[in-house]
Amino acid sequence: MNDQAEALRHLMKQKELHEEGRTTRIVTVTSGKGGVGKSNFSLNFALTLQRMGQKVLVFDADIGMANIDVLMGITSPYNLYHLLKQERTIWEIVQEGPEGLHFIAGGSGFKDLLDLSSEQLNGFEREIGKLHGVYDIILFDTGAGLSKETVKFITAAQETIVVTTPEPTSITDAYALIKMVKGMNHDVRFKLIVNRAADPREGKQTADKISLVAERFLQSKLPSLGILPDDPFVSKAVKRQIPFSVAYPGSEASVALERIAKQFLDLPQTQPQTLGGVKGFLNKMFRLSR
Fold first, then answer.
1. For range 46-53, the mean pLDDT
2. What is the average pLDDT across 184-210?
3. Strand order of the sheet with strand 159-164?
4. Which domains are seen in the chain, by residue range?
5. pLDDT at 21
């Protein structure tokens, strides 16, 4: 009964928001390699955006290292797998985290995404399509590197944020990811986050290095969204399984993230003809697999 009441509540809210004409912004967060703090950024970025008045849903789309719920210290009873198998509705797999943040836990379900029957595919599209207009931003935290599933999310989303660190291997892998996607002739709008910078100078040098190479060899601009410092409070929060922006709101990382979120909201979005919210995202994503 509780599940049914919750589903009804979400459906009523969806209708209200559709009447308001809300457009949903689809964003993916990715990285060239693992271990750069991508998921931690995604979670705290979403929380920061929500504090600024945005309604945000975090979708854990990392197949091998799904850990958004772990970072919050939450055990999720349902994930994408239950939706694909038509065991639960979209509203039943949406969970609630700190400060009321909505999220969908990751799982093995994304592997099944490539092998859906027509009936399952239609059902999945129908359920995901219900999210349109309910949220201002849906943020997909994808896997690191270029798996087939990650490519789908990057190329179907309106915007992709690439997280890197000043380490040479991280820089190289971030550039390689961007180069490979651009080589597929997809018009993806990338933005860059430099994480764990020792100081602002190192962060700027890292961002400039990748941007200059991308512009020279890929004829592609790579704007920087900002720099996150190597803050010891971040690792403390991870150990406590509390988002650092919640546990330590006055930390250097939390303050820097606020600046990043403000810049993100002020940046012009994609051109009107490429906007499509959830419907446009689904059309692009499944057109690539059919």
1. 97
2. 95
3. 94-96, 102-104, 56-61, 137-142, 25-30, 159-164, 190-197, 224-229
4. 25-287 (3.40.50.300)
5. 63
